[in-house]
Amino acid sequence: MSDHISGPRALANSIADITDVFAFPSPEGTGALVVVMNTLPFAKVSNAFSEGLIYRFRVRPLTANAPGAQTPFSAGPEHGAVEFVFDCVFSPPTDVDGESFEQVGTCLTPSGDSVSFRVNDENGGSDHGVRVFAGARWDPFILDAPAALKTVAIGELAFADRGQIYMDGKNVLGLVVEIDASLLGGATFVGVVAETLTRGTFNVRIERVGRPEVKNLILGPMQFDPVNQDLEIRDLYNMEDAFHIQHGYEGAYRARLNANLAFWDGLDGTTDWPLNGDVHPLTELVLADFLAVDVTKPYQEKGSFLEIELAALRGRPHETCGGRTINDDVMDTFFTTLINAGNGPTIRDGVDKSSRPASREFPYLSAPNPNPPEKPEHH
């Protein structure tokens, strides 16, 4: 749950709360792109998807920027950019016996075709170059979250050699869409974002997620921000278009990122990302908050997260598919990048794998825990 409770609105509307997003080439080597959106923290097997939401995946072709640009690649111009949108919506659930339920989902492809599927059907639904699964799944996120939050609170690394996944065994509602390459208009290098929006004639974005822990560990802490120290910024950020930040709050986002990225860099007592004035060299990259995936590269279970972005920053070709795979311990990469820029030892949080790893076969996410831990009261 790298993005759960990422602001007051997510806390108040947990059904629309995106907990994690993944994007990677199919492990079966078909050239398909797999995108995954997990929602509803502490879900139960009896929980259904909301008929009042659109669960949206946005896929945009990426282009390389000139060397020395603030971000290594861009996702098209502000207006008229090519984009491939996959919207999933759900019928109201029908109660079967008081415990189980039936619910039908529909995925709309960019070409206007519809793919129908049943919630909790392991085979999912398949048609028009798309395969879809939706249902309760074991939460696959790998992090000692209390230790990470303690690190922020006390200003020093609080990780142990052996950490624990917070409330391991909790469930989420998983949505998996496998997209044939033919539906991407020839694009092979793409940015991926997942969103939840209100469903109806007027769609309001509730949440959007690209990379893990951007909101909670980089934007969330307020105490280091010299400009907006009392501003809860995450709801504003969630409402933004990930591919184009609107003029208005961008100064607030940059001030928060410059301050908090400098905090993370200083945790080992050295500066590996020197500021340019008050500007942190990773700020613009973080603001370009989408997963970058090269579908021409083979699936790589571990080590692809941030590889494309960091290779571009260092002026070399990338070697992996990028994106984010389900079994990759991305938070070690996250902490190591922020704290020592890869110039020192790996910064481990003490947790290296999920207790229920994902498979390499559709629908990838592990079966749900029939008896998950109870949702804590403060959530």
Which structural category fits the helices and strands? Answer: alpha+beta
Q: Which shape, going by the Cα principal axes?
A: globular
Q: What is the H/E order?
A: HEEEEEEEEEEEEHEEEHHHHEHH
Oligomeric state: single chain
Q: Report the total helices.
A: 8
Question: How far apart are the termini?
Answer: 13 Å
Percent helix range? 10-25%
Can you summarize the main beta sheet?
7 strands, antiparallel
What is the average of the pLDDT values? 92
Q: How many domains, as an integer?
A: 1
Uncertain ranges:
none
SS elements, strand count: 16
Q: What is the rounded Rg?
A: 20 Å
Strand content: 15-25%
Characterization of the model:
By secondary structure, this protein is α+β, with helices and mostly antiparallel strands. The chain has one domain (8-340). It has helices at 8-12, 145-154, 214-219, 234-239, 250-265, 283-287, 307-313, 330-340, and strands spanning 18-25, 33-43, 53-61, 63-64, 73-74, 84-90, 94-95, 101-102, 104-108, 114-118, 125-127, 130-138, 171-179, 189-198, 205-209, 291-294. Strands 3, 6, 9, 10, 14, 15 and 16 form a 7-stranded antiparallel sheet that branches. Strands 1-2-13-12-11 form a 5-stranded antiparallel sheet, with no helix packed on it. A hairpin with a 6-residue loop joins strand 14 (189-198) and strand 15 (205-209). The protein is globular and about 60 Å long. The protein starts with 7 loop residues before the first helix and ends in a 39-residue tail after the last helix.
